[in-house]
Amino acid sequence: MNKKFEDIITEQGKLVYTNVGDSMYPLIKPRDLLVIEAVKKPLKVGDVPLYKRDSGQYVLHRIVEIDSGEYSTKGDNRTFVEKGVTDKHIIGVLTAIVRNGKTFPVETPEEHTRRISRDLIYLVSCAVNSEALDKERIEQMDLSEVFRLSTAHMLTSAVAFALEKTIPLPHAFDQSKKKAIRKIALFEIERAKITGEFEKSGIWYLPLKGIVLKNDYPKASMREMTDNDILVDPSRMKDVRAIMEGLGYSCDMYEKYNHDIYSKPPTLEFEIHSSLFFGEYMPLFAEYFADIKSRLKQNGFACRMSDEDFYLYFLSHTYKHYSQGGSGLRSLLDVYVFLRAHHDLDREYLNAELAKLEITDFEQKMRTLSQKLYTGADLTEPEQIMLDYMVSSGCAGTTENEEYNHMMTILGSDDSTASKRRYLKNRVFLSGEALQKNYPFVAKHKSLYPLLLVFRPIKGAITHPKGIVDEYKRVKKFKKRKNDH
Questions:
Q1: What is the residue extent of each domain of the chain?
Q2: pLDDT in tens, 253-297
Q3: In angstroms, rounded to a whole number, what is the distance separating the alpha carbons of residues 249 and 227?
Q4: R_g (Cα) of the chain, nearest Å
Q5: Which CATH number fits domain 5-106: 3.40.190.10, 2.10.109.10, 3.40.980.10, 3.40.50.720?
Q6: Is the dihedral of CA 43, 46, 47, 51 positive or negative?
Q7: pLDDT tens digits along 63-97
């Protein structure tokens, strides 16, 4: 007869069992061995106790709040908070996690992410700086977690180039590296076909972003890409579509934003831009780069930016993502390798143009952080906060960050009740620019304003009632982060 968990801990002071489920992922994975010991000191927020519900079900979740002797718990990979857990339910507390023969500490989600990101950054630094790895440090790493995080930041190939010099390359990293090499080769072949057709048709074109940046990496395939971006003559977008479809590409998006999207199975995707920025989303950047053609260097129909203008462009592009859903470790690496390869940039020109783009402070922070990060220097507290935000963003940003940044903007970084009430009032009672933009006729004929107050709620209730309710809930529950980037 199997003994109960609580009996084993009472008899032996410790319990070791194999985990099932994913409620504590990524700290705990299925088949991990979990070491549970008897509670020897008062539990605190952040501890992970094993407790038994009144129903008899065993649960291993983290304490998120303690109030009047009762614990509120939640799985790291869950949103539901369970209240009413007391000491009588507690059987023991998690003290260690064993995975693939290695023992790992019990950490908060923040501590876990920081530890794994430090390992990832170290490996990438060794790759781009052509430095030998510390084998002892590699042996202590949780490479499965490094793989997970490197995948989220599109840095797995770079990590593979570092690891293969010291240890037999794990299968997942080996496959990612080979995939990156194949994809770079395919993009090169296809891009040559595409630009060749552009030249035959007299269409000027400008390769963007990763197409250019990969050349500054020690190996081009260290810089992973999901697509290729090319700016073309905006007056020739119909001709471009005909060319792309003639080459076997499907048009997945056309004339919706400032770029059209073309794809070809199994993995090729090209974004063909009519402009560098979409004016509705980034009006300052769109205006600044509107006449970029006059600043390009041209060889036949192939164009390129000066190093300074390219730096301004890709920083602006990075800022667009950073200020919306976030931007990750790869963008910091791009800054590092680019500035290392182009150390003689005209700083006087850059400083003047950065001021026009209103990203002077952002550029300085990115430059400093990237340099410290990939040379192993210590970070200040504000730099660590910025890094935490970028690590949480993944390569392309997250919906959570985008929603948070949007709320920070509309509430003016003020999460007080008064600020939320002002915002909701302004959403109901439109005035000023908002009224002019959305209802110019009413703005001109103010006597119609009372009718608008009746019309808008009825229209909203009919067309998007869920959107109204969701916005109200988001505003009500919004809370500014303790350490904001």
A1: 5-106, 107-169, 176-403, 413-477
A2: 999 889 999 999 988 999 999 999 998 888 999 999 999 999 999
A3: 13
A4: 27
A5: 2.10.109.10
A6: positive
A7: 999 999 899 999 999 989 999 999 999 999 999 99
